[in-house]
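Narrative progress, year one. The postdoctoral researcher (J.K.) led the effort to move from monomer predictions toward full complexes, under supervision of the PI. The following entry was the first complex the group processed end to end, covering 411 residues in total.
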Amino acid sequence: MGQGVLDVDDNNFESEILKADKPALVDFWAPWCGPCKAIGPAIQELEQTYGDRIVFARCNVDNSPNTPTQYSIRAIPTLILFQDGKVVDQVVGAVPKSHLESLVQKVL
Amino acid sequence: MREDVYDVAIIGCGPAGLQAAIHAASKKAKVVVFGKPQKSSLYKAHIANYCCYEKPISGKEILKTGRKQAEGFDAVFLEEDIIETKNENDLFSLVTESGETFTSRALVLSMGVARKKLGVKGEKRLVGRGVSYCVDCDANFFKGMDVAVVGNESAAVTGALTLLLYASTVHLICRKLVVTDTLYNRLRDSQVEVTEDTWVKEVIGTDEVEGLLLKNGDTLNVNGVFVELGAKGALELAANLGAVFDAETFSFIETNKKQETNIPGLYAAGDIAGQPWQIAKAVGEGCVAGIEAAEYAKRLVES
């Protein structure tokens, strides 16, 4: 069990995600996005299972415009998996929990 | 805003919504039903596996009769899609495609499930690279760009109007528009460039969307394509209210045996509450949802 889903923004993205000592899954979301809300519980559940080995974070694209631009995000939710500061893989949209789980397992 | 508060609002007028309306209204609840009967998957079907009807019956007939029954109990029907839902101070507020706001104490979601993807070349590959299925989510990423919306109904037209606030040019690609007159007039008076009588053949682009190839042979240079088929569905209308979805597909709203969702006063019935997609299940769930929603509204008034 981990520490819960961490809120990250343009200011701490580098320190919390790119320079993290663990792989990180970042959920780019916004409060007014229905599909983002729908997958929220699934991400929290995954955090419960894998949170000790992977950083689970979310970045509100409304408050942090630079980071989504840097990763060419054009749709939310977008989930990007990082390891050693590099993008390992990413998914767009409300994909099934099993799909998210197989994404996470790529860095275990 | 309309001042009168309905006890039970129902989105969707297929078998689940109709049965919910019949049961809620027969319990003296003030009921309003939104939706277009021709959108029900029952509309074009012939039913041969519904208990007690030996000969195949026409879905269209069932829908017509159900509405008549519900109207007999004073339920009000509006052939409008709902484009926005909110939940504040124990009341649900619903905005119709024509722009009117209605409020209710309980809300039954029975709008069914619908296809969301076009299924054309290039679409899947460019998801998140210019292809989007949610104007409300992604409009902000297309500031100052040229975009196209694809669809024939309320989600596409309201989506195109929303995009005018962000994009520099907004195209609407449709076969034939099926919206209320009010919404049609808003579109006609807007800057949206409408291309009718055609459809998308291919989404063009290498790393991101560069354009659309249409069935009429034309090419349209756009940076974004918003696929907005049909009316707004569960992900747009229920997730905003905080409803929990099934984690495996995010297509169905989770309910208990009373058809209650995790949100007080919010019920789901029929296809939107999960498989099997059968009229018998929809009617059964609609019955439960209608009774429960009417009782919830009554408790709310008395409390």
